[in-house]
Amino acid sequence: MAVDCDSRQIFLEGEIRLMSTVLAAVVTGLHEPTELREVQIPDPEETGVLARVEVATLCGTDVHHWLGELQQNAPGLPYIPGHETAAVVEEIRGERKDVLGQPLAEGDRIIANYPRCNHCYFCTIANQPQLCPNGYAYGHYPCGTYPFLLGGCAEMHYYPPGCDIVKIPPEVPSDLAASAACALRTVIHGFERLGGIEPHEKVLIQGAGPLGLYASALARDRGAGKVIVIGAPEPRLSVARDWGADATLNLDECSNPDDRKAWVLDQTNGLGPDVVIQCASGLANPEGLDLVRRGGRFLAIGVGGNQITLPSNLITVKGLQVSGVIGALGRHYWKALEFLRTRREQFDFSRLLTGVYTLDRVGDALSAMERFEEVKAVVLPHTSSNRE
Description:
The structure is a single chain. The protein folds into two domains: about 10-170 and about 345-380, Alpha-Beta Complex (Quinone Oxidoreductase, Chain A, domain 1); about 185-325, 3-Layer(aba) Sandwich (Rossmann fold). Helices cover about 25% and strands about 25% of the residues. The chain has ten helices and 17 strands. It has helices spanning about 60-65, 120-125, 175-195, 210-220, 235-240, 255-265, 285-290, 315-320, 330-340, 360-370; strands at about 10, 15-20, 20-25, 35-40, 50-55, 85-90, 110, 155-160, 165, 200-205, 225-230, 245-250, 275-280, 295-300, 320-325, 355-360, 375-380. Helix 4 (about 210-220) runs parallel beside helix 5 (about 235-240). Residues about 1-10 and about 10-20 have low confidence and may be disordered.
């Protein structure tokens, strides 16, 4: 494809357009409606990739950023929301390979993790590149700053050097692949840190959002003896049960922590669960740490929520193994797609995807997710309502 830094031939809606900008839904103020704006197409760096967004899905983190609840990682305004994106490669500057070492080509469907520097302590010594202090995440990077297109709620997305790119298998629809680019890959990473699950072990999932539902499916798939879920609202718990949860407790009907503890103990022979996976900010960590049995394992995935206070001896006296997870590596994205590909007969993953929105309604999608009316909103950038 011919490339010029001032204008490009871009395939949009089945036609070639000569353009230097694309449409994007832009957050200009926290907890305010998004605006439809023209955003500059970047001149790619060496090995940089420009891709046409097929589908973006929104998750709880997008809502937390929009509400201004993640001040330690506050977005710069204005920004393009969306960090779960399935896109089709349109242009590659030079040569680029995917996470398996295979060459990328125009027309490949892809997801990708976040860029990192590949030369700091976390990248080279600690082998924890997801903690790279020089890296950055998609979905809240200022769109007035190069490379501009780092959010999924736009007609195009830029993938810079330093990120891992994963090709989407033909069997996986783009909307589900997009959802794997945050929720599922984080759960995959969490289970890797958690270690194996034995057939006798009882697993409690706190939360019934995308993280909690994927975690319940993975716990069942990994052979847990019993999977129980605490969350809300009821339609989400119905998905959890259909995906193999043995018992669920509706938070809307059980707001008392003591009652929840009694229910959990009743489900686990009075011992407490062997594993607790915290997937919701609304259920404070002390509750999960209190519920897990002595010598058990606790995994924290959910973010956001209020400040918490821990009893000083809670972890030591109970002899707990406590892990926290943030971000993911290329292998977790690849494994997430493989889980969708190989388990599509066991789990109806499409039940996670609820309302469908165009770019001009991304603000509505964020509001609906804030009200828990959507599990995972789907954004389709290429429709006639976006660009007349």
